[in-house]
Amino acid sequence: MALLTRATDGIRGAPFTHADYSWLVEDQEHVRSVAVDTLSQLAELHAAAGDLDRAIETVEQALTLDPDPIEDLFRQQMLWQHRLGRPQEARDVYRQLSDRCDRTPSEETTALLESLGGEVRVVVQ
User: Fold this and answer.
1) N or C, which end of the chain is more exposed by having fewer CB within 10 Å?
2) Calpha distance 32→21 (Å, rounded)
3) Whether the Cβ atoms of residue 82 and residue 88 lie closer than 8 Å to each other
4) For residue range 34-53, what is the model confidence (pLDDT) as tens digits?
5) Which H helix or E strand runs over 101?
6) Residue 100 φ/ψ, nearest 5 degrees
7) In sequence order, what E strands does the chain have?
8) Which residue segment(s) compose the domain that 21 sits in?
9) How many structural domains compose the chain?
10) Confidence of residue 19 (pLDDT cuts 50, 70, 90)
11) Distance of alpha carbon 99 from alpha carbon 74, whole angstroms
């Protein structure tokens, strides 16, 4: 796990954004997908080892890679925040997801929030 953590430590933001070689852009989506999957797996390893705070940080790192919200990662964060006894943070994660996407989070995500004791508030802008 330590080697994987070191290998992924500097991964943030869209891959190849500032690259001088246009041919790299062709591989951008594949690299982004692999990086998100790797960070997601690393987060699971941290959680399995009992380090939920590090797992949450790793998911947050993965979320920097994709402009479209990855709802599964938000749900995982909500669950881990709840397990750490931080219900307000779990609700905040739900709000962050809602703010990042142009729609209401899925029924599955809303049901998770409600099962964790959170209130769903619809904000009309």
Assistant:
1) C
2) 17
3) no
4) 889 999 999 999 999 999 99
5) none
6) -80, -25
7) none
8) 1-66
9) 2
10) low
11) 12
